[in-house]
Amino acid sequence: MARKVGSVGSVTAEAILTEGCKLFARFGYAAVSMRQIAAAVGVQASAIYQHYPNKQEILVAILNAHMDALLKAWDDEVCDEDAAAALERFVRFHIRYHISRPDEVFLSYMELRSLEDQGFRIIERKRHTYESVAKTILRHGTEDGTFSVSDPHVAAMAILAMLTGVNTWYRSDGRLSQQKIEELYIGMVMGSVGLTAAPKE
Amino acid sequence: MARKVGSVGSVTAEAILTEGCKLFARFGYAAVSMRQIAAAVGVQASAIYQHYPNKQEILVAILNAHMDALLKAWDDEVCDEDAAAALERFVRFHIRYHISRPDEVFLSYMELRSLEDQGFRIIERKRHTYESVAKTILRHGTEDGTFSVSDPHVAAMAILAMLTGVNTWYRSDGRLSQQKIEELYIGMVMGSVGLTAAPKE
DNA sequence: GTCTATAAGCCGATAGAC
DNA sequence: GTCTATCGGCTTATAGAC
């Protein structure tokens, strides 16, 4: 298991995040020891401190990377279109992205409480930025008369919770394909903002 | 702090659940020590073992009591009515009940992973029973033509996630009254199952 | 960059006095 | 029913060899 010779630091640093994410999601931040993470990576616990100053910074790095990747992925996807098409695109994007990273998603919802002051503020702000994506789509669609929404903020929070909830029951070998799930949720989301028919089909 | 004389065991047993719930919700099950719980109750750690055989059983007792109270509260509320009225009643009930017990709700979603085999199965089953309440309302309403729902199971999970999500942002001193929140969510839920107008107003 | 060894302290749980 | 005292084990983090 020793990798003393020929080991590459950046590989270890990356593996610490990958294995830490899996373990934190499975057992909870507080329940996972540095020894457990080290064992999963294939090094001794003390080697971790070459890459992260303490356990807390591992969690911060995982959540930061997740939020940055999420925001970047949406930036790559977004384009100019009407409100209904934008909402449909967002629903598909959110479901697809969140289903593909269940551990990171679970962590970023459940372990915010394990973050200390500065890390908490940074992650919370990035989360808020992502929530604003949904809120902005809903506000624009409401202002131009496409949607019938009383409170865009509440509607955004409701829709985000609904979509993220897929992760609690989705199984890749389950009854429904990802495509089918996207369509079911698009139907419900569109209905919830006052649109009766799906924009396509 | 000692209560050696005149202490009543059942009061301590109850306080352990109350304080344990607060602490577990705030810091996570694994991060809370028996000493912390004991300090919050006002006894020494060893006194806890008079009431619960170990830490795990405290968590099980908290979650069991929560699920039993939730199912009982719905049983007291339910009555014979049409599907739209039943769904509206359920939405109001779920929001009201969950807002009033944020710690228990957070725990029952986040610390399922901290439960060992038997406790997990018991709690999971009670959760499933509660999910069936929503599912049954949606299935009946779909069968009699009230709702337009493609998949009652997915719709139930989506609606439950949306409603439970209120707890992530609700503040009792916030912009919106509980009454107003219920109405906003009823509007969105009704829309998501294909009903355009609210049954009242 | 990773190792071994270790410091200093908290953990869950138990024994026995009152 | 609660206390004090304690056991063995595991924790985060550091020091110094290679």
From TrEMBL, chains A, B:
SUPFAM superfamilies per UniProt: Homeodomain-like, Tetracyclin repressor-like, C-terminal domain
UniProt cross-references to PROSITE patterns, sorted A to Z: HTH_TETR_2
HTH tetR-type domain ranges (all copies): 10-70
DNA-binding interval(s): 33-52
Keyword line: DNA-binding, Transcription, Transcription regulation
One GO MF term attached to the UniProt entry: DNA-binding transcription factor activity
Xref: Gene3D superfamilies: Tetracycline Repressor, domain 2
Pfam families to which the protein is assigned, alphabetical: TetR_C_24, TetR_N
Protein name (Swiss-Prot/TrEMBL): TetR family transcriptional regulator
Native species: Ahrensia marina
